[in-house]
Model the fold of this input.
Amino acid sequence: MSGLREKILSTASDLFQTQGINSTGVDTIVATAGTTKMTLYKYFSSKELLILEVLRTGHQDFQTWLNDKLSANTKHPAEKLQKLFDYIEEWITAPDFNGIGFIKASAEFPKEDNPVHKLSTEQSLQFREYIKQLATEANIKDADGLSLQLSLLFKGAVQAEQMQRGSDAVKYAKIAAKILIDGSLTR
Amino acid sequence: MDIFDSPWLINMLAKSSKTPQGRLLGLFDILNDWLKAPSFEQASVTLGAANPLLISYCIEQAKSLGAENPELLAEHIVLIAQNAARHAIAQPDSNSLIHAKKVALALIQAQTQQSGVTTNIKGSRSALYGLAASMVIVIGAAAIWAPMFMHSKTAQAQLAEQDQTNTSINQNKALTAIDASRMYAKYEQMRQGTCQFPEVLQIPDEHKSIYLENVVGGKLPNDLDDLGVANFYLEKVRCNFTPMLMAASK
Done:
């Protein structure tokens, strides 16, 4: 039972990332997942709820992956901050990378009162808070400012990469991140 | 109104600075002022919208400041400006455009720093020690050479050619002041680097004293024949001129 729910979620996630959220219909999702509309609506009562669940799962996966990588391979807080963009690069340049859910969703749902827009804004903020926490642990005075800088850098790099795969955007973002982190460490 | 697509913005950018870097960074100051102006009420900054005018202007600036990938730099900077402007509208106190300007500057630096510079600096110290060590070994080996070392016919043949050129140009076998000053310049240069010449073990016996005295020892050759030989080996010695300060700073 829950296997079918997972199947619908991962199929929807793939289609949203490759074809766009708005341009992917429920019909396409059920056809690709090999199920029926009835089943889909049993688990997700509307397309919007499905989108929200896809976003939640995707963000959770990204954060967990990033956190595991950083905890497993680094010891010092300052090192974690430096390594952050190394792992972001690993995530983004992976062959199956199709974009970061919350960045794509906020572009497709620009209206601020839309629930999808709200969730993507919340996730974007969560990611920034995560960077801020790493910066605070690394004893950086202006952790708030640095987290804003790094999240702007990250978001722009992902958008550039989404526009054109293999754009080297993350390669330069990584160097720029190091310049920004080094600059705020010495301040 | 979409400010990102306006000729007004391009005009303002063109006036903002005399340098291409200044004109790229001017984007953030102009947007910041514009969003803070009292007349500003409700701006719609369309995310991901194509701004061909602004993008091509930024590509030009990125090209003239020598960016490695001008198209990408321009694209990334405009995206950051758009995101920061939206952020500034939602949270006017966040100073997001000021932070975005710092990000853009870091990206410009990332795209204009010579690739590989950092790795060179990192490796230079150990490399320097390695070369210094090999120099000591080579000099040591050369000083206590034994007759078992092989003669090199190719070196002799090349030397013969060089000797001929030298003698045909200078009929007089005595050293001129110009020759001497050139040699001293070469010695001086060698002192500033770490040099090695492992092939020293294979040079002909009759050249070994010249090499030791006039190349390693830094003593001026007695005549033009010796100068030719010394010059030949001076050219062969490989020197690493990594500045000491740079190597020591890491």
User: Anything to note?
Assistant: Chain B has two domains: 3-112, 117-248.
